[in-house]
Amino acid sequence: MTSAKRPKVLGAGLIALDLVMSMDPEKPIRSWAGGTCGNVLSILAYLGWEAFPIARMNGDPASERVRADMTRWGVRLDFTACTPTGHTPIIIQEIRLGRDGSPTHRFSWSCPRCGKRLPGFKAVTIGAVETVTPTLPGTSVFFLDRLSRATLMLAARASAQGAVIVFEPSGKGETKLVAEAIRIAHIVKYSDQRLAAVGGAMQRDAATLVEVQTRGAKGLKYRHRFGRGVSDWMHLDALPAPRLADICGSGDWCTAGLLAQATTGGQAGLRQAGAKGVRAALRYGQALAAWNCGFEGARGGMYAIDRSSFDRQIEALIAGQLEVMVIDRSDQMQDSSIACPACPPVPSRRGAPGGGRRPSPTAWGSFVALKT
Q1: Is residue 152 helix, strand or coil?
Q2: Burial class of residue 176 in the structure, from the number of CB atoms within 10 Å of its CB (0-12 exposed, 13-18 middle, 19+ buried)
Q3: Residue among 142, 168, 141, 162 nearest 153 (CA)
């Protein structure tokens, strides 16, 4: 598929560096591009889309690790250094066993060495609008999960060009901006754990065509507006995961699956897909979510399974066949030479990033080195 024929997605929101700590203390920390927006765009690039994240990366080690990881999957980096630049957010994900014996995870936004807050999200500013606007024609999807006046201006312009606007509320943000985002979004998707009720979706003055509420192991419910009015809520049970290693990122895979199947043609394509197409696309997204549970990290399977095996396993899941997944960890990227900007530089231990044991919090500084 040539670049000109590939569907295009732009995204503005949380793009972070995930540092994933396994339940196995012998495994090194793995570092991947993450955040809701970062995951959705990376997955869509993996599925064949041309993906353009919009961010304010300043060239620090965390941003360079994110760039390298996204480049691996073909993500376009044209708009990742919008000014004013800043530190890339860093999120620590620690995988644990829950009380019921199943894996769970804990997120941390604080440095385990100095205790200070790690870099957080900074929304793009008005200066990015004129920089990004020329690339909006031909865009199938504009995705946003964190809001600013600039992201809403870009979303409105993308909508005018025929793009599907997709909004995943994070549960944070100014009420006025959230209401405006919901009003212009064609797809609104949220977790019942994060935001149980979204005001404004499906109201008469809203552009919303599809509203999706994910419910974890209980599946999801959704409603649409493809007929004369708003449909009743409809339910889709979750697909069973063939293997349960970590549920982190499964919602992002569900989103990417929905978009990959129902929005390649922008707004016109979404309307053409209609109720039947959206239901099939959601089922595809659920299959991706179930498959993702077999791997540690929000997108761990992308590093462990070749693309042909991925396609075959997703087809099997949709058909109700729970395949045993072959996991090849030799291809995973494990470079974790990232640290807290507040920590003083400490020389990294030789060999640690590629294969050393996971450091304890007190050893964090000897594991990583930051050049500031």
Answers
A1: helix
A2: exposed
A3: 142
Sheet holding 30-34, edge to edge: 30-34, 16-21, 90-97, 103-108
Contact 165, 142 (CB under 8 A): yes
Residue type, 263: T
What is the value of pTM for the model shown?
0.89
Whether the CB-CB separation of 365 and 343 falls below 8 Å is answered with yes
Is 351 part of a structural domain of the chain?
no
Q: What are phi and psi of 180, to 5 degrees?
A: -65, -40
How far apart, in whole angstroms, are the C-alpha atoms of residue 234 and residue 271? 18
- State how many domains the chain has: 1
- Cα atoms in the 13 Å half-sphere on the side-chain side of 270: 25
The H or E element spanning position 51 is strand 50-54
On whether the CB atoms of residues 282 and 258 are closer than 8 A, the answer is yes
Task: State the sign of the Cα–Cα–Cα–Cα dihedral 288, 293, 298, 299.
Answer: negative
**Residue 275: partners with Cβ closer than 8 Å, 6 or more residues away:** 224, 226, 227, 231
Q: Is the dihedral of CA 244, 247, 248, 253 positive or negative?
A: positive
Q: Are 310 and 326 in contact (CB under 8 A)?
A: no
What does the DSSP 8-state code read for residue 211? E
CATH number, domain of 186, equals 3.40.1190.20
Are 333 and 302 contacting, i.e. CB atoms less than 8 angstroms apart?
A: no
> Can you give the residue range of the structural domain that contains 151?
7-325
Query: Does the residue 284 lie in any domain?
Result: yes
Tokens of 258: 């929905």
- For the four alpha carbons of 125, 267, 230 and 195, in that order, the dihedral sign comes to negative
Other beta carbons less than 10 A from residue 283's beta carbon = 17
Chain segment 111-123, per-residue pLDDT in tens: 777 788 899 999 9
Residue 354 domain-assigned? no
Q: Is residue 1 part of a domain?
A: no
pLDDT tens-digit readout, 268-290: 999 999 999 999 999 999 999 99
At residue 29, what is the residue type? I
* Single-letter amino acid code for the residue at 349: R
Percentage with pLDDT > 70 across the chain: 82
* Other beta carbons within 10 Å of 81: 14
